[in-house]
Amino acid sequence: MNIQGSIYRRLMLQLVGSAAILAAILFLLFQSFARQLAVESQDTTLKASASAILESVSVQQGQVVADIPYAALAMLGNVSDDRVFYQISRGTEVLTGYEDLPRSLDDTSWTAKYRGDPIRLVKVSRSLPINGSLTTIAVTVAQTQDGLAQKLGEISRTAILIGFIFFAVATILAVWAARSSVRPLNIVAAAVSRRGPADLRPVTTPVPSEMAPLTQALNAFIARLDRSLSQSEDFIAEAAHRVRTPLATVRAQAEVTLRRVEKEENRVALKQMIRAVDESSRAAGQLLDHAMVAFRTDHLELSKLDLRAIIEEIVERQTPIADLKDIGFVETTAPGCIVLGDTILIQNALTNIIDNAVKYSPHETVITVTLEREGAEVVLTVADQGPGFEADNIDALTDRFARGTNVGQTVGSGLGLTIANEVAKAHNGTLTLKQNTKGSGACVTLSLPA
């Protein structure tokens, strides 16, 4: 599975990144607005002070007289502890105040450097009649900006706090939005993951319109998978019938012919043919059984099974074959050995185990079948008196087509133990192969959870 990033993480990064950018923009806008507001407030105070001073200027006996009111400069001192400067001038002549104070040609407000400190200045003027002609009197008031800088620092800290709060709230909302956005995906994933392997119903979970193409594609895939599995199951059943029936017919005809043929070389050829048919029939049958097991292990049809009844039925079916070799069964089966399993798979596994025991047992021997409850497991043990397992090859005998070197001429496909092992794993059980501890032969143990 090729995983490329996370929608949740990507959405979170985008939302949180956007929140951070918006918080920075909010801080800059707030700080810019606060600075502009503070400067305008200082300008208003400076202009009021300058206007009050200008109102106090009068002409007496042809001379310009300025009686600067205390309140005009006091109002600036009340606002902050900044230093205040003023200048009253007529044209280029400074009548009173600070002569080196920066000047402006127009009535305006501006910022300049004065005696090493930044200052804010406001100039106002009016015309007064002196000796029959109008003369322009200008008043300039200035103030240092330490108080303004301090106030702007406080405002900046407040802006930072507001920006942080905005970012925190936006982050919380981003987490909520991201989780809400991916929740439909998680709901669909949970709805599908809770299904059993055989549950191929369409996904009907309500989803947003953006996810409709995904659920439609998923439902289309489920429908195709359902059709494919059904066709595979039908093919396996049909193939089993198509292959086994002709082979059985050929074998029957060969046996009939064998009874009529007298020449030894022809009888040998017919016996070889019958053996080849037996090997082909068994191999084809077990290949189909193995395909069926592989198909059903992905969608088990579980039900409560009484292993005792199943084993008794299998032993009864194997008895006629065992009687041909004078093989007897010794059964020790305890009642109440109930497991939850797939009927067809369990029957197939038990049939292969007992069939192997019959097939490899020599004439006039005994096969011991034991079924008992051990704790939380039901354990089936089948022991024969055949050639047994080779110790150095025992672990490989559950591989497909693996057979021991001591099987001689016994017909087999090497799939019986493979099928039994795969069925055991599909039911969370185990298949154990070992030598028969009571003598020669093999011992196969199948353990299934009760």
Secondary structure elements and their pairing?
Layout: H1 7-56, E1 57-60, E2 63-66, H2 70-79, E3 84-90, E4 93-97, E5 109-114, E6 117-130, E7 133-144, H3 146-193, H4 212-260, H5 264-296, E8 302-306, H6 307-323, E9 328-333, E10 338-342, H7 343-360, E11 366-374, E12 377-383, H8 416-426, E13 430-435, E14 442-449
Parallel strand pairs: 9-11
Antiparallel strand pairs: 1-2, 3-4, 3-7, 5-6, 6-7, 8-10, 11-12, 12-14, 13-14
Helix pairs in contact: 1-2, 1-3, 4-5, 5-8, 6-7, 7-8
Describe this structure in words.
The chain is of the alpha+beta class and 450 residues long. It folds into three domains: 7-154, Beta-Lactamase, CATH 3.30.450; 200-299; 301-450, 2-Layer Sandwich (Heat Shock Protein 90), CATH 3.30.565. Helix content is 52%, strand content 22%. The chain contains eight helices and 14 strands. It has helices spanning 7-56, 70-79, 146-193, 212-260, 264-296, 307-323, 343-360, 416-426; strands spanning 57-60, 63-66, 84-90, 93-97, 109-114, 117-130, 133-144, 302-306, 328-333, 338-342, 366-374, 377-383, 430-435, 442-449. The strands form four sheets. The protein has a five-stranded antiparallel beta sheet with strand order 4-3-7-6-5. A five-stranded mixed beta sheet has the order 9-11-12-14-13. Strands 1-2 form a two-stranded antiparallel ribbon. Strand 6 and strand 7 form a beta hairpin. Helix 5 runs parallel beside helix 8 and helix 6 (307-323) runs parallel beside helix 7. The protein is rod-shaped, with a radius of gyration of 51 Å. The two termini are 35 Å apart.
